[in-house]
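RECORD TYPE: inverse folding
INPUT: structure tokens
STRUCTURE:
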């Protein structure tokens, strides 16, 4: 009886090993079949499944075909071709860029392939010298007129005109306008003194006045806010609101009726 049990256990172990071996062989066979399906000049993807063509090749109908690089072109990091500086793509070729006098070639496929030297700007297919007015300087920009006025001047009719500062004024940060000093406000081309009424103060910028808390602006003065019973000055400081359990009605706070 004991021998029979021992033989039965051995048979079960042999059957289990055979099943594992069969699964392993099947997996290896599938892996070999998958590898054999990869075309020439390709490789397994580093992540995910499938394959990808090597650099310099592109996928065409399940094959990896060599990328044809035309004259005056090169393979970029993605494996596509780009025209060299001084050339632009024209179909499947690279055509030479016609660079005007006072211009230079650039690596760009979005414009005409050239830009003008400093001191010139593009007008059609030419580079025209920039007429720089007095008190102006050149800009490193391919847009606009190509220059800006110096600080303290503003553009007017193609010239740089000096900014006239009125009394109690100073040049703005932009340099092409002016602002009034603290306690003054702009009025036309002058800076007028701000008259601060009683119970008021200059704001943080110093360009206008505000009423103290508990007062409200009325015409050119600050009038006291009249707070009725069961009310208090609100957050803004220039009005009032009723306490909890009361509501505002006709300038007073009345008790909210219980339901």
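DESIGNED SEQUENCE:
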């Amino acid at each position: 009886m004991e021998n029979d049990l021992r033989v039965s256990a051995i048979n079960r172990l042999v059957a289990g090993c055979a099943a594992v071996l069969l699964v392993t062989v099947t997996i290896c066979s599938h892996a070999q079949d998958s590898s054999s399906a990869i075309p020439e000049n390709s490789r397994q993807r580093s992540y995910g499944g499938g394959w990808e063509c090597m650099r310099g090749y592109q996928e065409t109908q399940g094959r990896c075909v060599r990328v044809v690089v035309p004259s005056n072109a090169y393979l970029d990091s993605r494996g596509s071709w780009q025209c060299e500086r001084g050339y632009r793509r024209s179909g499947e070729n690279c055509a030479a860029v016609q660079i005007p006098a006072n211009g230079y070639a650039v690596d760009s496929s979005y414009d005409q392939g050239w830009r003008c030297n400093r001191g010139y700007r593009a007008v059609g297919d030419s580079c025209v010298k920039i007429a720089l007015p007095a008190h102006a300087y050149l800009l490193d920009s391919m847009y606009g007129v190509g220059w800006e006025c110096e600080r303290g001047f503003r553009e007017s009719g193609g010239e740089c005109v000096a900014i006239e500062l009125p009394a109690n004024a100073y040049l703005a940060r932009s340099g092409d306008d002016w602002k009034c000093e603290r306690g003054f406000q702009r009025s036309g081309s002058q800076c007028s003194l701000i008259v601060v009424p009683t119970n008021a103060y200059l704001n943080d910028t110093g360009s206008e006045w505000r009423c103290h808390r508990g007062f409200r602006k009325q015409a050119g003065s600050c009038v006291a806010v009249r707070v009725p019973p069961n009310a208090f000055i609100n957050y803004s400081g220039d009005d009032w609101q009723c306490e909890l359990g009361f509501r505002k009605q006709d300038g007073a706070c009345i008790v909210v009726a219980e339901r």
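NOTES: Residues 19-35 have pLDDT under 50 and may be disordered.
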